[in-house]
Design brief:
The protein has three helices and six strands. With 142 residues, it is α+β, with helices and mostly antiparallel strands. It starts with 5 loop residues before the first helix and ends with a strand.
Length: 142
């Protein structure tokens, strides 16, 4: 079991757990931006995961992707594992809209983050509680 990297913990809101991954919300309401962090120590790349964990990560990522596109009706979903600033393996899932602040360019460094308010975070938590994300446990319950 790996702890969440301090930079991710500072930039994100921990929403809960899936069987393999922590589910985080980037604290930037410019975009619906979720992050999966596999709970494995000393892993920076997908290929470093055991094969069963790779399959689980893909499964969790695909199900989260389906949920996000259904819930937010985005024009595009960006999924990326960059790790240039945070060495811990993490997958960004960013719902994009042709009308968003950075479209069509990448979101990184385009605009200052706008933190979520408590009500918006609660709405996202409620939305997740109704999602069919196999094995999802909310952070308050985890």
């Amino acid at each position: 079991m790996a702890e969440i990297h301090p930079q991710l913990a500072e930039d994100c809101i921990v929403l809960g757990r899936l069987p393999l991954c922590h589910l985080l919300l980037m604290n930037d309401c410019n975009y619906p931006w979720f992050i999966l962090v596999p709970a494995r120590a000393d892993i920076s790349e997908i290929y470093q995961l055991e094969i069963t964990d790779r399959r689980q990560l893909l499964s969790e990522s695909c199900r989260l992707s389906e949920f996000l596109m259904e819930a937010y009706a985005g024009d595009k979903l960006n999924v990326a594992a960059l790790g240039n600033q945070v060495p811990q393996l993490h997958l960004h899932h960013i719902v994009r809209f042709r009308s968003d602040a950075a479209w069509p360019t990448p979101v990184w460094g385009k605009h200052a983050p706008r933190p979520y308010g408590a009500e918006a975070i609660e709405e996202i938590r409620t939305l997740l509680s109704t999602a069919a994300l196999d094995g999802y446990v909310a952070a308050v319950d985890a």
